[in-house]
Write a structure and sequence with these properties.
It contains 2 helices and 2 strands, in the order H-E-E-H. Strand 1 and strand 2 form a beta hairpin. The longest helix has 11 residues. The model has no long low-confidence stretch (mean pLDDT 78).
Length: 72
């Protein structure tokens, strides 16, 4: 009885077929050999905070960078 249900399911669903069709060719290495390029859409701007000039993406980023440099 269970075999009958499996045969019916195989007719309507591709999951139960013995040889599923592959969308992409199968490779042993699933990772690409190419190195990803770093894409940075933001642009650094110059901020002056308490007399210190620093290049940062935003004012909040400038404050964070100055705190890490122990200047404020």
């Amino acid at each position: 009885m269970l075999a009958g249900y499996a045969m019916i399911a195989a007719q309507y669903d591709d999951i139960f077929r013995p040889t599923p069709k592959r969308q992409k060719p199968y490779n042993d290495n699933s990772f690409s050999d190419r190195t990803p390029k770093a894409v940075d859409s933001r642009q650094l701007r110059e901020f002056s905070i308490k007399g210190h000039k620093i290049m940062a993406y935003s004012k909040k980023d400038a404050l964070t960078r100055l705190k890490h440099q122990k200047k404020i």
